[in-house]
Design goal:
Keywords: Amino-acid biosynthesis, Aromatic amino acid biosynthesis, Lyase. GO terms for molecular function: 3-dehydroquinate dehydratase activity. Belongs to the type-II 3-dehydroquinase family. It is a single chain. The chain has 147 residues and is of the alpha/beta class. The chain is built from 5 helices and 5 strands. Helix 3 packs parallel to helix 4. A 5-stranded parallel β-sheet has the order 2-1-3-4-5, sandwiched between helices. It has one domain: 3-Layer(aba) Sandwich (Rossmann fold), CATH 3.40.50.
Length: 147
């Protein structure tokens, strides 16, 4: 089983930016957590981070050709206005989960709406870095139930 984890703009700056919102743990910690989770679950996890919308779209499309089993995505600010990322997600048939470290529904009003979530199977918000781990478990469960 192969799961792609895509992180959008500024996610590589967690632990540096707005620690009161995103916490003290840095991006390297997230990558270590995902590496450990992959070992525990006996699956392959590939991570990708980009601050560019086009690169994120290209990576989603590449996931299709690589026959990835699922995608976990934190589109960052693109969540709220990237119809292009939404279209890319909608074009690939596989389980997809949108993750947000903070509870976007408790933040500024513009963050309450996700234009990318409708193209995803589900959404996890406000559970910190652990949200990624829960998303891995959810995708693994979805894929197992399809077989």
């Amino acid at each position: 089983m192969r799961i792609l984890i895509i992180n959008g703009p500024n996610i590589n700056f967690i632990g540096i930016r707005e620690k009161e919102i995103y916490g003290q743990e840095g991006f390297a910690k997230l990558l270590k957590m995902l590496e450990q989770k992959a070992k525990e679950e006996g699956i392959e996890i590939e991570t990708f981070q980009s601050n560019g919308e086009g690169e994120i779209i290209d990576r989603i499309q590449k996931a299709y050709f690589e026959e990835m089993d699922g995608i976990i995505i934190n589109p960052g600010a693109y969540t709220h206005y990237s119809y292009a990322i939404c279209d890319a997600l909608a074009s690939v048939e596989m389980p997809k989960i949108e993750v947000h470290i903070s509870n976007v529904h408790k933040r500024e009003e513009f963050r309450h709406v996700s234009v990318t979530a409708p193209a995803c199977t589900g959404q996890i918000v406000g559970l910190g870095l652990n949200g990624y781990l829960y998303a891995v478990e959810a995708i693994k469960s979805m894929i197992s139930s399809q077989k």
